[in-house]
Specification:
The complex is a heterodimer of chains A (261) and B (281). With 261 residues, chain A is mostly helical. Chain A has one domain: MetI-like fold. In chain A, 79% of the residues lie in helices and 0% in strands. In chain A, helix 1 crosses helix 12. Chain A is globular. In chain A, 46% of the residues are buried. Chain B has 281 residues and is mainly alpha-helical. In chain B, 75% of the residues lie in helices and 2% in strands. Chain B has 13 helices and 2 strands; from the N terminus they run H-H-E-E-H-H-H-H-H-H-H-H-H-H-H. A two-stranded antiparallel ribbon of chain B has the order 1-2. In chain B, strand 1 and strand 2 form a beta hairpin. In chain B, helix 3 packs antiparallel against helix 4. The longest helix of chain B is centred in the first third of the chain and has 42 residues. The termini of chain B are far apart. Classes of the chains: A mainly alpha (261), B mainly alpha (281). Chains A and B meet through helix 1, helix 3, helix 4, helix 5 and helix 6 of A and helix 2, helix 3, helix 4, helix 5 and helix 6 of B.
Chain lengths: 261, 281
Amino acid sequence: MIAMRVSDMVWLGFGLSVMLFMTLPLLLVVLFSFNQSALTSLPLTGLTVDWYRRLFALNSFWPALKNSLIIGFTVALVSVAVGTLAALALSTMPARRASALLSAVTLPVMLPALIIGVSLICFFVRFLDLRLSLFTVILGHLVIALPFVVLIVHARLATFDWAAVESARDLGASPWVAFRTVTLPIVQPTIVGAGLVALSLSLDDFVITFFTIGGGNTLPTLVWGMVRTSLDPTINAIATLLLVLSIGSTVIALRLSRYRS
Amino acid sequence: MRLKSTVVRQLLPLAPAGVVFLGLFVAPLAYFLVISFWSVRARIMRPDFTIANYVESWSRYGDVLLRTLLAATAIGLVTTLLAFGLAYAIRFKAGRLGPALLFVTLITLFGGYLVKIYAWKSILGRDGIINMALVGMGILDEPSPAFIYSTAGVVVTLTYFLLPFAVLPIYGALRSIDDATLEAARDLGARPFAVLRDIVVPQCLGGITAAFTMAFLISAGDYVTPRFVGGGAALMGNFIETQFSLGFNWPMGSAMSFTVLAASLLVVLAFRSLLRASFRP
């Protein structure tokens, strides 16, 4: 009995140390973004928001933020529309065919972003003769965001009670009306959650953006330029901002998909 | 006629996703594969059918490829082991803390790829926390670059980045294991390790394979981490990236990409069959 307890404590200790490993580095970034000294060393010399002030005064910051938001929201909206439609179609299919299609759809997630990025630049520039712009970045982000939306919405629909939709149809509702008044309100939180996941993926992506943007910056490519040159605490500030944006939308997404149970 | 229209109606909602998948994923990859057989003369890419790029990938970058596969294997194994331990602790051992641990895992999922790499650069770097602490305590006379310019730095950083992604499929598989089976095994006298080896692991082979595959493939193609925390330890991704940013030799970069992919696929398949052979249910 005591041996059991010791092993439980070892497991818990292991879990907590992995947890520390997962969170501590990010906490340090946040902490140093408020540190007075320009050196990344402990103990902190005093708290300041100077690095944020410096960041907001940077000429390159605001256009990068704007580009990130334009790309992120477009990707979220398009991938939610396209992904929800696909998830609905998959959920009415025979299970085996649906799971085969699902594993095909998730292939882009398995592939290194570098290979997606370079294959897209070849395809866009040489084959389609497209000029690289925010539009090509949006197309690139769709490739990695769509699988997540399809997976999340499909998982929700797997536990969805289709009897409610059928009774609406029996009562004379058209497929569209039944979808709008029965299906949509029930799965809506999941759809919004999936959209936020797509948004965080897009806001966070560096590699595909790097190859498909041509000119201009998003927040990650701006960070890349800064990290390449130095360990400037302004990076801590912009990194914290990126963290807040992506973790914020993930937390809201999780909250919304809690409606599952 | 009627049958046809229902089929169309069933497939129509899949069409937009199909366009994205085929038009922005399959077609670019196929075109990219075609390019790998082209040649470059006077810095201009010309349609051709040559395997010279593949030959050169092996002969010139063979040692880099080997280093990349070794690093990716190390990252894949460490990540999968840690992820399994964490998922196991969350599912069976953490009790009421479990959901909290899972929540933290999920919020670090999208916590910034570059931010995570930068965080480790500022921990391991020349002016980083470890160096500052060691100098401050008088253990080192001056900051050492040893922590950052090594493959170990790449392994730590990528493991850190991939861990939350690896926990999810394993946790998903562990969640569907029936507690009653485990209790039955224990009641029949199985030791905890035997339960783990004979019941738990065989039932989540799918999750473990998915975690390893993802961690391995993403590491094998990464170029940002080696660049920032790997120093001299440049991996295949760095050389591929160079073909596109500085070298303008797209066919070469393409052949190198498919070489890494093919070699990676072999490693992943080997891992799969090894795992299946050693944990036959």
